[in-house]
Sequence to fold (382 residues):
Amino acid sequence: MTKQWHIARHIDEAASQEALSDAAELLRQGQTVAFPTETVYGLGADATNTDAVKQIFMAKGRPSDNPLIVHIADRQDLPKWTKPVEGPVEQLMEAFWPGPLTIIFPVRQGTISPLVTAGLSTVGIRIPDNTVARELIRLSGRPIAAPSANSSGKPSPTRAEHVLADLDGRIGGIVEAGSATVGLESTVVEWAQDALHILRPGGVTAEQLREALPGVTVIAPAGGEPSGDAAESIDMSPGIAADTSSSAAIAGEAPRAPGMKYAHYAPRGRMILVDGADPDAVASTIRRELRAAKSRGERTGVLTRTERSALYEEADVVVACGTLAAPHTIAQGLFAALRQFDQDEATFILAESCPEHGIGAAIMNRLRKAAGGNIIHSDEGH
Ligand code: TXA
Ligand code: MG
Fold:
């Protein structure tokens, strides 16, 4: 049975302390505990205990060659698990910790389980910007390995109910405390060859990194390129293979990276991302594809923004996610929106793209994966 604790009050209050101490005890005993962070809910286990970490991979159905991020509560603990790193890493920690930035360090051998690092000589570390998460980690007295607390392949969980929908009965416990505020996972960065490389776009944008590190080269993955977390999509559970053969308008980029064979963050229905600079062309392309899908007998869905939801009345399911005027609201709602299509049983989903600057880079990274690389460019042929 999965234990549940709900933190409704300040972490210093007795009821909160009691709940968090119980949850921390479970972690110390080598069990898995899901907990909220500012990005998404994580599924935690003691990163120094290989048997505990194994439980994470089993609960999620995650391939073991994909390393986990280690969460700590205090920068002072860093030297226990890592060796010093070159480059502007001090500045990065100063600017973005606690927060949605994971930094890759050389691991101190013999401390963190090799299952966490997938046998690499490095480890990704972050301090979450969530007081409940930090207090849980602090009380456990351990570094906590935690991937997103979803079944591998599914959208990441931004609410406790998403975690329970995927993992109830498969994990030791869950600490519930509201919704994730960022809504997308942390940005993963590594210092190498005199430059800061973004391995996975996320809650901290490339623009923010450049601003914090004047004179430093920050290398962001080009749009559409598989990024550092493609490996989670090499899934042992039955993923949904992307099928690009049915429509000539869909740009199917073969051969794909192995991980692109399976959908990640994907709703059960087939999803296609509709790209294009002209919002009217995007809408008319989506409406055309909706009509075609309806005639095939699909239950259709559209993922759009609040201000555009009236454009798609012919769809069976319209999910309005955030507003373009405040792109962080799109990030906040994205994973819940993707899950909504499953609840409403959409079999064919058209998703609007968003401009790829700021947090938009991370949003588009997740949308491309959710669509398994299936993209229609609405500007073509107009
Ligand atoms: O926001 C987040 O990062 C969430 C919350 C729970 O903290 N966690 C999360 O973990 O997204 P996960 O396991 O879903 O993603 C971990 C990412 C993967 O892209 C993995 O490849 C990368 O971090 N990663 C971890 N350790 C690494 C390493 N040593 N070298 C390169 N990439 C690494
Ligand atoms: Mg994940």
User: Anything to note?
Assistant: The chain has three domains: 3-176, 187-250, 270-380. The two ends are 56 Å apart (CA to CA). Residues 279-295 form the longest helix (17 residues).
